[in-house]
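User: Design a sequence. Structure:
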């Protein structure tokens, strides 16, 4: 009887370890940069050709791809669950409010890549791997660092319409609340600040920062023309650019006003100068946990690139599915045999 109890305890310990491992990033040991070397050796080249062409035609594709990749990985792991299109019978992550503004160019680039791959090696390369590789290609194409992307992810068998709004950071969150989300998933303060550097690309809609430039009130309720932590010329320029945003919610501003199409450390330099666009940018400057890292990356582009590369590699391994936990979708926006309802 005692031997049986010990065996049960041992089994429980192994199960707990397996669950912890999955939560921390999944069975990463099964992934390898050479995963497709025999089954689809031109996979990375095919993806690169498609997304580079898309980026040249639509220069906001890179920022959009990084956003889609982050929204995918931070919700149930890097498993292409964000790519599933909702149907009359089942909703998906795309139905979540925070995902309504995800850019179509990024989804289109993934779809085009998958079509090209299916012609070359059908049923081999997962959509999750396409998304991870496409993100890396576009980071390097816009001037950022190249980092390892281990391959062999499977695509998810489910996609939650409610999880994204709960698990993803929102533009009006405090840095403290964003850090809680990152720390809960096993990421450090440094990794959070480094990954935020992806905002060196892309834009944000005026409604996401309108409270900083219109009808601003400080913590005591005192009114001001705009958030006083902002550069006055920058704030007035945004007020002029966004004056019709209530009539036209598509009006937006670049996250990095200085070098919006280049992947560099200017995002952090801007924060130091009061040129951060979102309230979360200002929060990273005022929070004592994050300010030293903002200063470090603003002063040293190499340090930013090194830390961003490591953080992206870690993010790309978060919660990956392998084996029977996923599938290789024939189409990135639909399951092969319907969603997993278990």
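Assistant: Done.
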């Amino acid at each position: 009887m005692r031997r049986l109890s010990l065996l049960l305890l041992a089994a429980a310990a192994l199960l707990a370890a397996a669950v912890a491992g999955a939560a921390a990033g999944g069975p990463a040991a099964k992934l390898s940069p050479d995963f497709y070397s025999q089954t689809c050796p031109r996979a990375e080249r095919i993806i690169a050709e498609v997304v580079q062409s898309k980026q040249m035609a639509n220069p906001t594709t890179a920022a959009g791809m990084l956003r889609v990749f982050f929204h995918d990985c931070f919700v149930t792991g890097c498993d292409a669950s964000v790519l599933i299109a909702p149907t009359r019978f089942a909703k998906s992550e795309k139905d979540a409010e925070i995902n309504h503004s995800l850019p179509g160019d990024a989804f289109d680039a993934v779809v085009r890549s998958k079509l090209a791959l299916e012609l070359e090696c059908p049923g081999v390369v997962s959509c999750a791997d396409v998304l991870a590789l496409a993100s890396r290609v576009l980071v390097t194409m816009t001037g950022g660092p190249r980092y390892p992307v281990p391959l062999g992810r499977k695509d998810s068998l489910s996609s939650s319409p409610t999880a994204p709004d709960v698990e993803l950071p929102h533009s009006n969150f405090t840095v403290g609340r964003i850090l809680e989300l990152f720390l809960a998933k096993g990421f450090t303060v440094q990794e959070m600040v480094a990954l935020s550097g992806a905002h060196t690309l892309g834009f944000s809609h005026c409604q996401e920062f309108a409270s900083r430039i219109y009808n601003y009130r400080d913590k005591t309720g005192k009114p001001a023309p705009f958030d006083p932590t902002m550069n006055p010329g920058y704030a007035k320029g945004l007020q002029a650019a966004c004056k019709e945003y209530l009539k036209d919610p598509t009006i937006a501003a670049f996250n990095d006003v200085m070098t919006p199409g280049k992947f560099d450390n200017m995002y952090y330099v801007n924060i130091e100068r009061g040129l951060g666009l979102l309230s979360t940018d200002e929060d990273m400057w005022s929070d004592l946990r994050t300010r030293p890292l903002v200063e470090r990356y603003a002063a040293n582009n190499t340090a930013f690139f090194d830390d961003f590369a490591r953080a992206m590699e870690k993010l790309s391994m978060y919660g990956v599915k392998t084996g029977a936990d996923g599938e290789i979708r024939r189409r990135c926006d639909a399951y092969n045999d319907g969603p997993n309802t278990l």
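Residues 42-166 form a domain with the Peroxidase; domain 1 fold (CATH 1.10.520.10). The two ends are 35 Å apart (CA to CA).
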